[in-house]
Amino acid sequence: MTSMYNESILVCVYYGPNGERLIKRGCKLAKMIKAPLYILTIDHKPFDELDAEKVFYIEQWKKLADEHKDAHFIMKDNEKRPVSKVIAEVARKKNVTQIVLGQTAQSRWQQITKGSIINDLLHDIPFVDLHIISVARYIRNDEGIYEKGVRAYLIKDGNQYKLSFNHTKDSEYEGIFFKEIGTDFDNGLFRFMKGTETLQVQVSDGIVTDFTNVDVSSAMSLNEED
């Protein structure tokens, strides 16, 4: 693919509900200027040591990359170098001219690198434009705030689905359950892939009655802990 502006775009994503939003922003920008798109995530642990939630997000990002014909997913695991150095290396190798970075990733990676990623990138790759996107760190909507997601499954039960935390032969959908804070019951959101579509559906007392997508748009303070 030849970019009409000789551009290429790198989207940096970290685990959480906002990676998809950043990727879609990058896809939109890449399509507009007809540029190749690279999606990068970095982890200091080896891939086989990642928990189920992180693996789930990586699988989603790969699927989103596959849906965009000129997108390429890059996973840098077991990475001990500062994150800014890894981003800069990928940017140079792929001739990247624009980087999309979320505030979530910036905040988290600052904790890892003990410094400012933005300043380091500006120093290491001054020829690249940086797009800093404001994103949410937690799932939250008008009805409540949700805990960190855990791996879960939906099992068909008549005209509805039961939430399960154990995989069985009857499990039809695999995803992440975000439990609503302040309840003793399994109330919250279940996030999963249905075909090529990512859905977030309401769970009430461990039951999903329909697959109406729940719009999650607002966010908690970026100063909160994961």
TrEMBL record:
Q: Which residues form the signal peptide?
A: none
Domain named UspA is located at: 8-125
Q: Which SUPFAM superfamilies match?
A: Adenine nucleotide alpha hydrolases-like
State one Pfam family annotation.
Answer: Usp
**Which protein, by its recorded name, is this?**
Universal stress protein
Organism expressing this protein natively:
Pallidibacillus pasinlerensis
